[in-house]
Amino acid sequence: MVSWEVIAALLLFAFTATWTPGPNNILLASSGARFGFRRSIPLILGVVFGLPPVVFCVALGLGELFRTQPWIQDGVRIAGALVFLWICWKIVSTPFPTDSENSSAADKPWSFLKAAAFQWINPKSWGASLAIVSAYAKGEHLLMEGILLSFPFVLANLTSSPSWALFGSLIRSFLNTPLRFRLYNVIMGGLMGLSGLFLFLDA
């Protein structure tokens, strides 16, 4: 039986990993500012339910594959870095909306599937998954351990993901001039770009 101390430690880890700034939260804040909270809900749900499967698969043995085949981890890191830089460019190059009700087809919020798929190349997702599995998995009951280690991330993301998107939507009215809008996007995109560059340097 799992002790309350272990449950509390798992929740603390998951809440820390999901609330602290990272690629997911940059995307959520940017989406909230550009599209509002309601239109960002598919992105929110994609993050909430996209990360736990990564944790689950790592607990089932994918983490061991990463440890024995370092080239796979390097490949994920490089792919993640390239995607981060692409997202950086997309955020920074977003034009000031002249009509928020008629945005172009190319400029639309992330879908649920796109956000969920992003978790598989998000190095922070892999890092959190590997860390929690290494610390708490015993390898005795893989299926139950996978469920136990995944569930705290659902709870944590249910609080953090909407909050980051809400933060972006709340400052949306402040971004009502081209200069403010551009500055916000440069900051958000720059943080994403730095994440990508650090991944290249670490590869």
Summarize the structure in words:
The chain is an all-alpha fold and 203 residues long. Helices cover 76% and strands 0% of the residues. The protein has 8 helices and no strands. The protein has helices at 4-19, 23-35, 41-68, 70-92, 112-118, 123-136, 142-170, 178-202. Helix 3 runs antiparallel to helix 4 (70-92). The model has no long low-confidence stretch (mean pLDDT 84).
Question: Which descriptors apply to this entry?
Answer:
single chain, 203 residues, mainly alpha
Using DSSP, what is the number of strands? Answer: 0
Instruction: Tell me the fraction of residues in β-strands, as a range.
Output: under 5%
User: Whole-number average pLDDT?
Assistant: 84
- Count of helix runs: 8
**Helix/strand order, N-terminal first:** HHHHHHHH
Termini separation? 40 Å
Uncertain runs are: none
Sketch the major β-sheet.
none
Structural class: mainly alpha
- Bin the helical content: over 70%
Shape: globular
Briefly characterize the structure.
The protein contains 8 helices and no strands. It has helices at residues 4-19, 23-35, 41-68, 70-92, 112-118, 123-136, 142-170, 178-202.
What's the helix and strand layout?
Blueprint: H1 4-19, H2 23-35, H3 41-68, H4 70-92, H5 112-118, H6 123-136, H7 142-170, H8 178-202
Helix pairs in contact: 1-6, 1-7, 2-7, 2-8, 3-4, 3-5, 3-6, 3-7, 4-8
